[in-house]
């Protein structure tokens, strides 16, 4: 592969703390993706309802918004490494509670929703610090390469985690799936403990609503940033069919392929990441984000129009590739242009932009499928994505 296209792995060699944090996340994401598949699967098994599965996104939405914005403020106020560590411990404990719940004669559906909401809150607290810590661990010129490596870390977990989840759910049940995730949190925490402290530069910042408003005001004052937020929210809200995957596998008479449906998009993302060397030399970030968002909507539409499993997987792979192009250029724009004193709060805003859309999209997909059909939900979402991305840009 040409060096101009191959992914640059030099940050892993040059920055030991980045390497430790990267490894921690690699292990943690792998386990979390097992739970990501197990949760909707367990809800489906308990209720057999599109709406019940879609409501998991609704349960996560408000906690993510509140704690994501406040987590951004805290990321500019406290030691970012400690925030990552403490939330990782809490996430592990909540996952263990899912294991306990799964062992009961009648697992509590309410508890599953409560834990899903708590996951979202903890994710909202952790992710701004995890995103904002990157420029403090890696040199400015290496940020595009580091961003690609962070994407590779996530993609590896999203591909391998659901694949193992499918096997565990089919052979051992949800309890074993949750327990494996707990084990990955323990290993992840051990790596985080070896990362140095990353204390805030602005020590006098008070973690108040006013500080949160300052971050939002800065974000909205940057039209380039605002455009990326709106495009991403629209694309994910209208064309995120993940909540339908357990039912989609059933309709295709291929329950064995559930993990493949979850992993397909990430295969496309991985292909783009592994050939991402060209990103640092392409300067028309806005144009790349626009066309990538349109590509996502088109690919999701085509996936909903066909009945063949392998064609569906192909279109989901193309959707994931488009999303990754958008993500790489958004990440490069954010990391290279936001001052450190705002980085935590802007990471909170970014978290809302790329998480609220998918969570709301799960609810939209579930309700639409319940009232119409799975195919209508997927196709209409893809077409609405294309329309709104065109409108916003």
Describe this structure in words.
With 393 residues, the protein is mainly α. Helix content is 80%, strand content 0%. It contains 16 helices and no strands. The protein has helices at residues 10-14, 16-47, 50-75, 80-102, 109-132, 134-137, 143-171, 174-192, 209-221, 223-238, 245-251, 258-274, 285-305, 309-337, 340-371, 374-392. The longest helix is centred in the N-terminal third of the chain and has 32 residues, at 16-47. It is globular and about 55 Å long. 56% of the residues are buried.
Keywords summarizing the entry:
80% helix; globular; 393 residues; mainly alpha
Task: Summarize this structure briefly.
With 393 residues, this protein is an all-alpha fold.
Low-pLDDT regions: none
Treating each run of at least 4 consecutive H or I residues as one helix, how many helices?
A: 16
Order of helices and strands: HHHHHHHHHHHHHHHH
How many strands, which pairing sense, and closed or not: the largest β-sheet? none
Rg is 20 Å
Oligomer: single chain
Structural class: mainly alpha
Report the strand count: 0
* Share of residues in helices: over 70%
């Amino acid at each position: 592969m040409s060096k101009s296209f191959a992914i640059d792995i030099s940050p892993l060699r040059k920055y030991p703390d980045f390497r430790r944090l990267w490894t921690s996340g690699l292990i943690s994401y792998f386990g979390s993706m097992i739970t990501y598949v197990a949760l909707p699967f367990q809800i489906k098994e308990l209720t057999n309802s599109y709406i019940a599965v879609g409501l998991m996104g609704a349960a996560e939405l408000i906690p993510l918004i509140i704690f994501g914005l406040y987590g951004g403020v805290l990321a500019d106020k406290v030691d970012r490494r400690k925030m990552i560590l403490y939330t990782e411990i809490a996430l592990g404990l909540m996952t263990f509670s899912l294991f306990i719940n799964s062992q009961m004669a009648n697992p509590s559906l309410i508890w599953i929703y409560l834990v899903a909401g708590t996951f979202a809150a903890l994710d909202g607290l952790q992710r701004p610090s995890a995103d904002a810590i990157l420029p403090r661990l890696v040199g400015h010129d290496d940020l595009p390469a580091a961003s690609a490596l962070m994407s590779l870390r996530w993609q590896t977990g999203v591909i391998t985690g659901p694949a193992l989840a499918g096997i565990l759910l089919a052979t051992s049940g949800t309890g074993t799936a949750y327990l494996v995730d707990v084990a990955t949190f323990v290993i992840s925490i051990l790596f985080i403990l070896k990362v140095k402290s990353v204390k805030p530069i602005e020590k006098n910042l008070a973690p108040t609503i006013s500080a949160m408003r300052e971050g939002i005001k800065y974000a909205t004052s940057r039209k380039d940033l605002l455009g990326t937020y709106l495009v991403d929210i629209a694309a994910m809200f209208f064309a995120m069919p993940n909540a339908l995957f357990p039912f989609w596998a059933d309709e295709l008479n291929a329950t064995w392929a559930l993990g493949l449906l979850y992993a397909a998009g990430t295969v496309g993302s991985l292909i783009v990441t592994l050939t991402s060397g060209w990103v640092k030399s392409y300067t028309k970030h806005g144009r790349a984000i626009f066309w990538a968002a349109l590509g996502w909507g088109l690919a999701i539409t085509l996936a909903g129009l066909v009945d063949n499993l392998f064609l569906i997987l192909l279109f989901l792979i193309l959707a994931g590739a488009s999303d990754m192009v958008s993500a790489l250029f958004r990440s490069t724009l954010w990391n290279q242009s936001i001052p450190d004193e705002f980085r935590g709060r802007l990471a909170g805003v970014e978290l809302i932009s790329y998480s609220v859309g998918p969570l709301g999209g799960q609810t939209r997909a579930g309700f639409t499928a319940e009232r119409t059909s799975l195919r209508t939900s997927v196709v209409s979402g893809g077409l609405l994505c294309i329309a709104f991305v065109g409108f916003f840009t």
